[in-house]
Amino acid sequence: ALFLFYKPRGVISAVEDNKGRKVVTDYFEDVQERLYPVGRLDYDTSGLLVMTNDGELANHLMHPRYALEKKYVAKVEGIPNRPALAPLKTGVSIDGKMTAPAKVEILSTDKAKKTAIVALTIHQGMNHQVKKMFKAVGFPVIKLSREAYGNLTLAGLQPGEHRPIKPQELHDLRQLTGEQEEAH
Fold first, then answer.
1. pLDDT at position 142, please?
2. How many other CB atoms are found less than 10 A from the CB of residue 120?
3. Is residue 164 within 8 Å of 2, Cβ to Cβ?
């Protein structure tokens, strides 16, 4: 079982929460299999999460060696220009580690509110990485969403909705991670 899930904000990327907060599996009560999320999104971050019951596939997708591209769209404080965001393209220091080069694109700016919408594509998965990267260049994140994961996007889904991942999508995803299709 393999699903694409649009995680709303205010939901934990876990199968249970000891504080009684909403968890991602609450949205899959119609599914028989015991699903769990591949990787995680912060509580207050929305966006694309892959849910599966296939541990081997989950480990494969999360392995740093295969580094799938993840595209985030952030609403940030302040109005950055290209030079201000340039360090993100080469790498910034977070918790004493340099981030790998990222793709950055300013999508829109709101001069009245002094905010901007910026897309950031990374293929690492350090803790709170996107928020820390924007903070490192002086533009704290107000709101964050993961819009794409490898070849998968949120197209056609609303927050809280899920759909099965199609065989072709899985095939393409595996190709992106360089996994050879083995005959089982």
1. 98
2. 23
3. yes
